[in-house]
Amino acid sequence: MYIDTMPIFDGHNDALTRLWLSDDHDPVDAFIHQQLPGHLDLNRCQKVGFAGGFFAIFLPPFDYLKQHHPNKLLDQGVDNFTQQQIEQICLQQLDLAQQLTQRSSNIQICTSVEDIEHCITERKLAIVLHMEGAEALQHDPELLDVFYDAGLRSIGPLWNRPSQFGHGLNAGFPHSPNTGPGLTAEGKALIARCADKKLLVDVSHMNERAFWDTAEILAQPIVATHSNAYRLCPQARNLTDTQLKAIYDSQGLVGVNFDVAFLRSDGQRNTDTPIEVILDHLEYLILYLGEEHVGFGSDFDGALISNELNDIMGMSKLISAMQQRNYSDQLIEKICFKNWLKVLQRIWAAT
Ligand SMILES: [Zn+2]
């Protein structure tokens, strides 16, 4: 197992959505006992020392489902989800997370830093439940309590489409993060409610206006769970130097996204991309944020990953590359998990 490897805690993956989309007759069993196609499963996590991270509950775009997974839609004759379907899809992904923990003593849903530390010691996979895009909460705000009670501790109020909560972010490349209006009144109210409940509020999919609207509301650290440096890759999902400065001032964190289109300076969806470009972003972020406020935000199972990295097993190559660039052991430890645990403690255990 992974006794001698560095524990890795990561800001974002879409494994739950992949399980939900899977046509395998028992994807939960496949995740626990076999090898599922995709970037991660329990065996690979344990081999490489992947201690856990944020597992997103995510509503895939309707047109994507209609084209690639029509069996997942109740009614294929319509051109959008009903609210009931949206809620059902998100609850089904929550149920998958619960099944993982019920059917494997090596997987746990974590709601505190102590839980995550316990998982690291016990070599269990730590799941922090994250909601990516809050459409499920549009008609029934009380549903937030249902998800919270089930362990949800992080939320990205917006995704790449307009919703009741804000403008969403959908732009070509290159494009400034300034893509239009930010949060609606409902969006601001949702963020205030999430902050009251001490949920992490993720700015990763926010345009610039929504980012600043959120910064104004939050007293807690600002966190971008899976975004990169705009100066190195001018993609609207990445963060400008001014935004990085605000994240630093809030004692927040940026998790580096491994999607090649968010890393490469030309924005190309080209997997023939060396993993060194991940280090370039890390180092740029460290210039603005210092060593204490950067981590990983892989986006495994939701991102186009470099051939060199390939899947979660590539994390060992990434750590070797950090050593080759003479990162100290302390810095590697901070990036791999310590910084994430610190910022989560600041948010979840705030008094
Ligand atoms: Zn995302």
UniProtKB/TrEMBL annotation:
CDD domains: rDP_like
Molecular functions per Gene Ontology: metallodipeptidase activity
SUPFAM superfamilies given in the database record: Metallo-dependent hydrolases
A Pfam family annotated for this UniProt entry: Peptidase_M19
InterPro entries linked: Metal_Hydrolase (IPR032466), Pept_M19 (IPR008257)
Biological processes per GO annotation: proteolysis
The name this protein goes by in its record: Dipeptidase
Native organism: Acinetobacter nematophilus
